[in-house]
Specification:
By secondary structure, the chain is α/β, with parallel strands linked by helices. Helices cover about 35% and strands about 10% of the residues. GO terms for molecular function: hydrolase activity.
Length: about 450
């Protein structure tokens, strides 16, 4: 399969139906309006120029996309949002009952001034400070956590120094004076990039949460089980040095990693009080076929974690077979049916839907099923839940009560659904959160350890 066909397919192809063996049914195929999101002449010519170039089939898919990133760096945005309402309007053109492809979303965001400072320079831009993977956490745990915190824990393949260095503890952290909350980022992002403009900013002000986050090496593009080791270690380490149970809030793949950690490092279950899952893909996503088309010899592949999140991935099948799609600890999941990265995401087919086979307490919140009609919260994208008020009130309710959140307990739930953004966030925060999506897109294609085939599962999971 030639690379030019792959990129054109990624931009224009409808979603393929799920195989008969799957228990999920695919949503209706995506339809596209003429032209690429109605782009203005300037950006439209840039993209058209790229598409002309890819007819040379001696190039590879990755080369073509890298050219797109380079050209997007040279584009002057045709608009810049000056209010939260502006951002919400832009996102409505991306989200919807028939979401656009991830590539189209990124181009639209770049057009509207919601991209990074440099698409080609994202690794450098987000590798220091609050996004550093090389943090010095000198507090030693009171008991041995490595090579294992429990007799039944899976073995680590990563050294303890690297596992601990990925934990970013901000200056505001109280080491147990407030309940610790570990923030786990999503695919192709860092913790600071994901959370500083939203949850970290908001939760730091509260007495029921003390946020810190993970900056996992490889930007969560390495194998998902490998990424999970950082989550498992962080849970036990933070619980020990604070002498408190922790809560975990995760975005996207961070939820697969958290559930995998809870599954294969059972010692973690005893020290997690609450788990809030934002836009999870426990059953994979059919939209990732756009980014990882059917791989053949001679075509540069995809990042391991991206392949593993496809709806028919062996990792996802195994994850479900060992009970990963059912909660281990009290869990609140929050997601939108208009997700532009994870689909299907509606009703009983929702990839985010988490079971409660172990009767630990689960609340699944699809906003379209719980918010009043015409609420701003009803049209959201993969990451926009982070700056929405519904997530904030669900987090507060979950963290201040035993078990998962309960909408019936939240007296101002309808008011939360009616707000464009959470109290305490401004336009810069909303823009900063949204810009993480183009950063993730760039990181996926700049990542230099792509594979042609899905990685094998670790020996402990065989």
């Amino acid at each position: 399969m030639h690379f030019s066909y792959l990129l054109i397919a990624a931009l224009f192809s409808p979603i393929n139906a799920l195989p008969a063996s799957s228990s999920y049914s695919a949503p209706a195929p995506v339809s596209r309006a003429p032209g690429l999101l109605g782009l203005t002449d300037g950006l439209g010519k840039v993209v058209d120029g790229l598409l002309d170039r890819i007819h040379d089939e001696t190039e590879e898919l990755t080369t073509a996309v890298l050219a797109l990133l380079q050209q997007l760096d040279e584009v002057v945005p045709t608009a810049t949002p000056t209010s939260i309402e502006d951002v919400a309007t832009i996102l409505k053109g991306i989200a919807g009952a028939e979401p656009t492809t991830f590539i189209e979303s990124v181009v639209s965001l770049a057009k509207n001034g919601l991209g990074p400072g440099s698409f080609e320079g994202v690794f450098k831009q987000y590798s220091a400070g609050s996004n550093s993977e090389n943090n010095v956490n000198e507090r030693e745990p009171s008991k041995k956590l490595y090579p294992s915190a429990g007799d039944n824990d899976a073995p680590y393949s990563i050294d303890e120094e690297t596992l601990r260095a990925a934990i970013y503890i901000p200056d505001t952290f109280t080491y147990g004076e407030k309940p610790p909350v570990i923030l786990v980022p999503g695919t192709a992002t860092k913790g600071g990039l994901c959370y500083e403009a939203n949850l970290a900013k908001l939760l730091t002000k509260e007495d029921y949460a003390d946020p810190l986050w993970l900056n996992i090496p490889g930007w969560l593009l390495e194998s998902a089980p490998w990424n999970s080791e950082f989550v498992a270690y962080a849970i036990n380490y933070i619980a020990d040095i604070t002498s408190q149970n922790v809560s975990v809030i995760a975005l996207s793949q961070g939820n697969l990693d958290t559930q995998w950690a809870l599954t294969y490092w059972p010692s973690t279950r005893n020290v997690v009080s609450d788990y809030i899952a934002v836009s999870p893909d426990y059953h994979g996503s059919i939209l990732l076929d756009f980014l990882c088309p059917k791989l053949t010899e001679g075509i540069v592949g995809c990042a391991p974690a991206v392949i593993q999140q496809k709806y028919n991935a062996k990792f996802i099948e195994h994850f479900r077979s060992v009970g990963g799609a059912s909660a281990w600890v009290p869990t609140t999941t929050v997601y939108t049916g208009t997700d532009d990265v994870v689909q299907p995401q509606h009703g009983t087919n929702a990839s985010a839907l988490l079971g409660d086979d172990r009767d630990v307490g689960v609340l699944n919140v699809e906003l379209q099923l719980h918010c009043p009609l015409l609420s701003p919260a009803l049209v959201g994208t993969h990451e926009s839940l982070l700056w929405g008020q519904p997530l904030q009130v669900l987090i507060k309710d979950a963290l201040t009560h035993d078990g998962p959140a309960s909408i019936e307990r939240i007296s101002d739930w309808n008011d939360a659904c009616s707000m464009l953004a959470a109290e305490g966030l401004g336009v810069a925060d909303v823009v900063g959160t949204t810009a993480a999506v183009p950063v993730a897109f760039a990181a996926m294609f700049l990542y230099d350890k792509k594979v042609l085939y899905e990685p094998a599962l670790p020996a402990y999971a065989a």
